[in-house]
Each structure stands twice: as C-alpha cells, then as structure tokens.
Amino acid sequence: MQSKSDIIAQDLASKIKHQLYKPGNYIPSENQLTALYGSSRETVRRALDQLTELGLIQKIKGKGSLVLNLERYSFPISGITSFAELNKDLDMRAETKILTFEKCSQLPEKFLPYFSEEKDSKGTHVERLRIIQDQPDVLDCDYLLNPPIADIPKSAAEKSIYQYLENDLGLSISYATKEITVTKVDDHIQKLLQLDHELAVLVASRNYLEDTTKFELTLSYHRPDKFKFVDFARRKHIKL
Amino acid sequence: MQSKSDIIAQDLASKIKHQLYKPGNYIPSENQLTALYGSSRETVRRALDQLTELGLIQKIKGKGSLVLNLERYSFPISGITSFAELNKDLDMRAETKILTFEKCSQLPEKFLPYFSEEKDSKGTHVERLRIIQDQPDVLDCDYLLNPPIADIPKSAAEKSIYQYLENDLGLSISYATKEITVTKVDDHIQKLLQLDHELAVLVASRNYLEDTTKFELTLSYHRPDKFKFVDFARRKHIKL
DNA sequence: ATTGACAACATGTATAGACAAGTATAATAT
DNA sequence: ATATTATACTTGTCTATACATGTTGTCAAT
Description:
The structure is a homodimer.
Chain A: H1 4-17, H2 30-37, H3 41-54, E1 57-60, E2 64-67, H4 83-89, E3 94-104, E4 123-132, E5 135-145, H5 154-158, H6 161-168, E6 173-184, H7 187-192, E7 199-209, E8 214-222, E9 229-234
Helix pairs in contact in A: 1-3, 2-3
The structure holds a DNA duplex.
C-alpha cells in the first residue's frame, strides 16, 4: 500500500520529470503543497525528503526547494534496479539471452570466491547475457537462494525476476550491498563479451528482503568500454 | 549546529560500532529510546531514519530495529568522503604527494572532455598522488572553481581540502554526482600509477554546496587491481 | 494438544501546533 | 539616497496525540 506521502512524492517527481517544475526554479512552498494535496505539512515534508534523497531537489532554508538539473549528466543507476527496469526506463531496447538455468544443491564454483559464506546453500543458478544493439554488454550471473526462494519458472528469467518476486510472490526487496572491482576473466567470459583483453568490470552484490533475509547473489561482468556507473550522493555527517 | 536527532543518531551509530548493540540483535524500541534520550518519539524516529539510510539498521514492523552486519564486507565508500577522512577512518596510513598546485584562468585541458560546461571557469588546479604502502594507488586531480573558492593555501592540499573548506571557510558541502568508468590513460598517468597496461578506473565527480553552487570538479584515476567501490543501496519505489 | 481470542508490545502513518532561524521585501528613520 | 527595522514569507526542529497494522505470547475454549 502506498502512503499519502509516497503518492505526493510520486506526483512531484513526475511533475519534475515532465518539466512542470523546471531545474533552477522553486517548487511550491511546503504550505502551498499542504493546501494543494490537502495534507499536513509533515506529510509534505516526508515526500520532499524522498525527492531530496533521490537528488531531484535541494532544500534551501528560508528560500524554498530548488529543482536540480541532473538529466544533463544522465541518470543515477545506483540503488537497486533490475536490468529489465533500466531497459524500460532508459529505452535501450536490449535483448536477453539465457545461458544457464539450473537448480543447484550448493553454490556454483564461480560464486565461491565472492560469497564463500553461502558455500552450502541450495538455489537456482541463472546466467543471462545482455545484448544492446547487437553488442554483448553484460553477463549477469544470479544465484537465487533456496530458502527463501523455492521455485522459479524459467519464464520469469526471460522477463524480469524482480517483477516475479515482488508481484507474483509478494516479496519485498529492500536493500543490497554492492562491490565494484576490476578483474581478469577466463576465456569463456572473454568470448561471451567479445573482449580483446582479459579485464572486465565486476559488480558483486548481495540482495536482501525486508526481513533481512538474503535472497540473491549477483555477479555482473561488464565490458569495460561500455561500463558506466552513475551515482548521486549526499554528504553524511555521522562519523563511525 | 547539531540537532537533537543528529545527536541521537550519532550516539546510536557509535554504540553499534562499538558492539554495544550487536548485529542480529534489536536496538531498544522507539519508546525505550524516547525515554532514554528524553525526547519525543518522532525525534527518535528521525534519528533511526538516518541509520536506516546508512545501512546500519533495518526496521521491521511489529518487531523492532535490527542491527545489520556490514563490517564483514568492509564499509561503504560511496557518498561524499574525502581521501583524508577515509585515510583516518580506515587507518590505511597513506602518503600524499602534491604534483601540481596552480591557479588557472580557465579549465585545464584534461578536465575538458568530462566537464565541458566549465570550460572558461577560473579555479585552482591540484594534482595529488596517493601512495599506500609505497604503492602509487590513486591520482586525484581536483579543480576548485573560483567563484566560490577564491584562495586556498597549499597547506590545505597537504592536509585536507574538505576540512579547510568546511572548518576554516565555513562552507557546507552538500552533494555530488559521480560517474565511474574505465578509460585508457596516457603515458604520464601510466607511469605515475606504475601500470603495465593502459587501463585505469576513472571516477569523475561534480561537487556542490548547500546552496547548489558547484565548487569542485574531480577526476580520480585508480589502479584497476586496487580499485574497490563499496556501496549500500536501498530499493526506491519512485518511478520517473 | 490444538485452536482462537485477546492483550501488550512493536513500527507506520498522519495530524496539529509551536517556535527557531534564514531570506526577502517594504516601510521607516536618518 | 542610505541604512535600519519591521514583517511576512520560507524551511528546520521538536512535541504531543491518535490511530492503523504487524508480531508475539497468554489464556481460555475446544
């Protein structure tokens, strides 16, 4: 269920996207938004907090909330976003080729160096090659852990695994830890990505549900010349 | 000035760091924290929101706030954190060698392909080589834009530019957009980083103040074999 | 022993109100 | 004209309250 502040945030985000509120201008003040949406100021402020976190606006005390212009530098791809979602959002008309789809009684070898803590976990191994404009771009290796994900139809891998998990199974994907490195890859991967050298960008991530259950391990091998990670970050003032 | 909720967040974060609250356990409930800190529940909740965003805890409805165990996989280096801060936090006893420190009337050539919008901006050009355990690791190229940063002493570059800006000049560093790619580098950089090939990881970022003034451009060239970017991300549900 | 209802806890969401502090404008005094 | 003051805005912070909803254990009925 969407909360009132989620709906307001969604509506404002869409208005910013469609340039009803333009970069460099202020959106209506919190009091005006309060009247507009018929809600309390705190509720409006919770919506604005979301937009601030996303990097859509910057709040300036005494003045208002300024719309930032980030579209110039393309859009954040950090966070947790599935390939299918990116494909749709960025309209990159990509093709997906399923290379592997198998159930395993333990973690496949290739995952071991990165996720040794799951050595003996059952799961489903999915390998998919992402092809953009006839160019192999990314090799996605997923391992869906068996508890909590028992069975998954092959059709879900063809479309979107995340959509299947969230819409069909009703699971709530919540957070992830990611690690980006550059590694040497074997002949097999080198051939798949049509590389003329042995280096690839590797994004390794552990993905978790709302109840902190780990449900997926991912290794994504990217062509270095195509790889681009865009991020928006705010300075945090908590010192550990 | 630090707000009440900031102080609570800071205190809780420190307790988590020092294992007073351990991973897998729940921190005290919001009502207990309310009593503990003598504040309202909303104030406590604002503190918990910060810890949630940082990935220190996961709130579970009906149960409580669980401490997550992220230290196992080393700690998020996304966000905006200066090298000096990282050096201190991670205790990596790094050495910094200043290669360039000059005022410029326009953007130096090397920045142009990445920040063409600042072509004619005055500023200070700082190049620093980061050496970790006698191994050149990162080449940091900064360009501090003249408005808003007029003069900067060379001593600041030797210690920490961010500390100088925030503490001495009283500027508020607020947010940044970052872009991570892999690029071919020229002989000069190749030699500095002691690379036996031509690929380096490039982190390009635009850094902004609280009033949305852009104040710094950064190009960081990393040795691919040493590069590691760790991130914590939460799934966002706003669709653009 | 199993089930079901209930109570006591947890977090999630929304509201209303108050005051602080930064910004900009207009009126005022010099 | 210039500087000062008042004011009406803005966002920032905190409080108190209410109700919704999810979780867990207890106690009673079956």
